[in-house]
Design brief:
The protein is of the alpha/beta class. The protein has helices at about 15-25, 50-75, 90-100, 115-130, and strands spanning about 5-10, 35-40, 80-85, 105-110, 135-140. Helix 4 (about 115-130) links the parallel strand 4 (about 105-110) and strand 5 (about 135-140). The chain is globular.
Length: about 140
Amino acid sequence: MSYAHVLVSVALSPESHQLVARAVSIAGPTNARISLITLAAEPEMYNQLAAPMLEDIRGVLQEETQQFLRELVERANYPIHQTVIATGELSEHILDMCHKQNIDLVICGNHNQSFFSRAACSAKSIVASSKVDVLLVPLGGK
């Protein structure tokens, strides 16, 4: 089966390179498009600092996320159609992108750490609601 547009759900983690490499191996033979999506890190997840400091932290986390996505794109050695930094419920953003951008494969990682636990929950929701194929790639634990 060949795909025209692959969406990869990534996190600020070295394992995300494995997910992008898998997407390239699937998309490459047919020159399919690849897009990347990640959740924006929210400073509230890390600590309960005073409100004025949260905006500064949010900006730093946003830049860190953008830099990591640039690194993923650079190391992919394959053209990346777009990168998206989402907030809120990841599965809703993924399902919306699938519908609006004719994505026909979603690749997610399965990992035991907190972000990937959230991503795995998103993957379950995507599988339950999606009209496209979902590939859940095992990460870590080897």
